[in-house]
Amino acid sequence: MANLEVRDLSPVFGAEVSGLEPKIPLEEATLQQLRKLFDERKLLVFRDVEIDRDFQYYLSYAIIGREEPKQDPSVPKRESFISNKEENGIAPFGRLLWHSDMMWTAEACELLSLYGKDVGQPTTPTMFISSAQAWKTLPQGLRARVENLTAEHVHDLSYERSGGDETVLTAKFDDDDCTQLPLARRHPRTGETLLYVCQQMTSGITGLSKEESDSLLEELFQHLYATENILQHDWLKGDLVMWDNLALQHARGNVEAEGPPRTLRKTFAPMPAFLKTRQPQFARAMN
What we know:
Double-stranded beta-helix; four-stranded antiparallel sheet; 20% helix
């Protein structure tokens, strides 16, 4: 088994892991250690590792105990990049509001990972908060008001919630898919309860007027996104960051297209079927 060293990044979630030797397959004992750590800490950071897309993809599935889907060897493997320099890069510029990827679909994406392929300095960090911890610490009176409610989630409300900030980025698919899910959502793997609303994608609370819904959501957002709840990751080349996309939300500050390179290879586990054929269109919120 690998001699892994672990350092907590905050009292609540996040851990930096040292000593991992990137190889396929990893020893089962090492995988068991990483799975336990991932479920406990929700976010794992591996610094200064040299990995290719195959290892990143393999580890993303292995950590949540799933098998990689079979791929046609004759079809080239597509790499996805969050990048201000790569052609067809995802979210190539702008600021991203708080969200979990694809909250607007019931097809859960459990794990996201980003790998620092090309990172210049100074770079824009990624911020994280814990929806699981937010539910645990939700004041009792507020919890009683929301525990039996559902919320609707859509692709993107960045325009409405940009607060006049022209740097905010919107991401829109061609269709109008949406879903309704409990505010107290049960995590499908860990069984934890999550406070499942977000700034970018939650359009409203079912059964309430817009005024009531907006007011209640603002109370929840103030609790979720309080400064003391935020963990910030400052990117370096060779960083691998893997996190629970249901239990955590993420956001980022403004990325300039003309700024230092910020190219992060992205993987999903499991990969939602619709992402193989559909990609969002990105634009400034105030355009």
